[in-house]
Amino acid sequence: MGEVSKLKAWLTLSRLPFLTVAVFPFCLGTLMAYKLGGIFSMPVFLLSMAALILIMLATHYGGEYYDLEGDRLSAELERNQFSGGTQVIVGGALPRIYALAACYTALALAGVIGLLLQFYYKTGVMTIPLGLLGMLAGVFYSMPPVRLVGRGVGEVLIGVCYGWMPVAIGYYLQVGHFSADVAAVSVPIAFAIFNVILINEFPDYPADKQTGKRNLVVRFGKEGAAKMYAAAVFLAWLGFAGAVIYADVPRMAFWFYLPILLLSGVLGVLMLRGRFSDKALLEKMCGLTIAVDLGTALAYILGFAFLG
């Protein structure tokens, strides 16, 4: 394999576009620290962003290594571009062991950055614990025997790790303490990313069932999971409204969120009507659900950006 092909395989394996689902909330938390507390450190921001990306990459690489059987089956059944992994390992573009080695290398580098942040930049006593929580969640999401992705709790874990955690970490590392406003802001983001994971499990359903994964779609069936999706949409709406009304969030953020609210509502109705059975439409809905997640964080970011 040529060097260009290897580079392309690594970029595909890294799922770079999906990094945005944590980067956007992290930037939101950092922006809140600046707008509400008047504090911003560029070195802390850049280093912690690097650590965040490394932990996400480790999670991606670990998933590719441990989900090989399921990804292979998914490719033969109902897979679309948002499910079944990247197929880089399945297709033999890179040796499987490379993914595991890259996983541990990324975790080690993130650990070094965490030590630097806590002990040199004095970002607070929770810096290392927060980093370890993110690492353990990323590793055990796919790694047996824990394998949270197959126990019906992986979706909730993703909601916490990609909803609350990046916002909280972005804020905490700047100011050195947590905030109720940050917790409130993270609620709709958590429900939005929950739906990203949930809907991506629909095309993987046959493969997941055969390989013994007990995620929410396998446990409750597609119809039951569709109701969960719609419920999460509604709870995200309530969460955003609550953050704007009761937390220190600019009212303008709601107007930026309005198109996202409408889009997520349409997706919720389509799920309740069973349109997930249309494979082509489901693939589009998977992509639009990611747009809802990113748009939720972006609505907050724009709201705070216009705050004087």
Offer a quick outline of the entry:
It is globular and about 55 Å long.
Would you kindly provide a written description of the structure presented here, covering whatever features stand out?
The protein is mostly helical and 308 residues long. The protein has one domain (7-305). 75% of the residues lie in helices and 0% in strands. It contains 12 helices and no strands. Helix 2 (20-37) runs antiparallel to helix 8 and helix 3 packs antiparallel against helix 7 (154-175). The radius of gyration is 19 Å and the shape is globular. It starts with a helix and ends with a helix. The model has no long low-confidence stretch (mean pLDDT 92).
Task: Name the descriptors.
single chain; about 300 residues; mainly alpha; about 0% strand
SSE pattern:
HHHHHHHHHHHH
How many beta-strand segments?
0
Number of domains: 1
- How many whole angstroms does the radius of gyration measure? 19 Å
Tally the helices.
12
Biggest sheet features = none
Q: Extract low-pLDDT stretches.
A: none
Computed structural class? mainly alpha
What is the CA–CA distance across the termini? 53 Å
**Strand proportion:** under 5%
Topology summary:
Layout: H1 3-14, H2 20-37, H3 42-66, H4 68-76, H5 96-119, H6 127-142, H7 154-175, H8 180-200, H9 205-210, H10 216-246, H11 252-272, H12 279-305
Helix pairs in contact: 2-3, 2-7, 2-8, 2-12, 3-5, 3-6, 3-7, 5-6, 6-7, 7-8, 8-10, 8-12, 10-11, 11-12
